[in-house]
Specification:
The protein has five helices and 13 strands. The strands form three sheets. Strands 1, 3, 4, 7, 10, 11 and 12 form a seven-stranded mixed β-sheet that branches. Strands 2-6-5-9 form a four-stranded antiparallel β-sheet, with no helix packed on it.
């Protein structure tokens, strides 16, 4: 690890998670891995690319500051039913960690079968705090000397940039139904996502060209028509 910094957004702010999002909180957060070919020196990366990444993230958080918040349990629902909400306070930030790896960049970005365990060190962990489920977003930038860079993003599903929750009506009480089932979802979802513990799984990339995509569309259309 080379460094860890916190990029801040620019008022305390609460945003309730509506019932249609609550079942998604039971599963592991979304994890994205982006690989880029970067055949420049580490010094160039630190002096040029990294400042641009942090500046871009800072600008984005000014408009989408809930991403710098946390998932927190509703203060008025401490018993069986817990209503999740996003909490952002002034000075909230997203953790950005920069590290260097001696792993084989070509191997990690190839299409053939690869060992899943090779990717675990490249995925940051959302560290929970007391009374908070977890930060919403964290970022880890890994540099492969003279090969490339990998930029993984881990985040919980976040709402669209529209904060008026009152426009979503719940005449049938689905919110309480989801809240009552949330502990069950959480229990069943513990094994989801990219495993941190050693595993014998492999990862394979399938590359589809336009001809293959067109054939898939035709196949789906045919199967759909047969069911009508």
């Amino acid at each position: 690890m080379m460094s860890t910094q916190h990029i801040c957004a620019n008022t305390n702010f609460y945003l309730n998670k509506k019932f249609e999002f609550q079942s998604l909180l039971a599963i592991n957060p979304v994890k994205r891995l982006f690989f880029f070919v970067f055949r420049h020196s580490k010094q160039h990366f630190i002096q040029t690319v990294l400042p641009n990444i942090k500046h871009s993230l800072s600008l984005a958080l000014q408009r989408f500051y809930p991403f710098a918040g946390h998932l927190i349990r509703d203060r008025q629902h401490r018993s069986t039913n817990i209503k999740p909400e996003i909490f952002y306070s002034d000075g909230g930030s997203v953790s950005v960690t920069v590290s260097e790896s001696d792993s084989n960049f070509e191997q990690l970005t190839s299409s053939h079968a690869r060992d899943v365990n090779e990717y675990n060190p490249l995925v940051p962990v959302l560290i929970s705090k007391p009374d908070l489920v977890s930060p919403l977003t964290t970022l880890l930038v890994t540099l492969f000397p003279n090969s490339g860079a990998e930029d993984p993003l881990v985040l919980y599903e976040s709402p669209l940039p529209f904060f008026d929750r009152s426009v979503i009506k719940d005449p049938k009480g689905l919110e309480m139904l989801y809240l009552n089932q949330l502990p069950v979802f959480e229990q069943s979802a513990k094994s989801y996502g990219l495993a941190i513990a050693p595993t014998d799984e492999i990862r394979v990339t399938f590359v589809l060209g336009r001809p293959e995509i067109d054939k898939l569309k035709q196949w789906v259309a045919k199967k759909t028509f047969e069911k009508i």
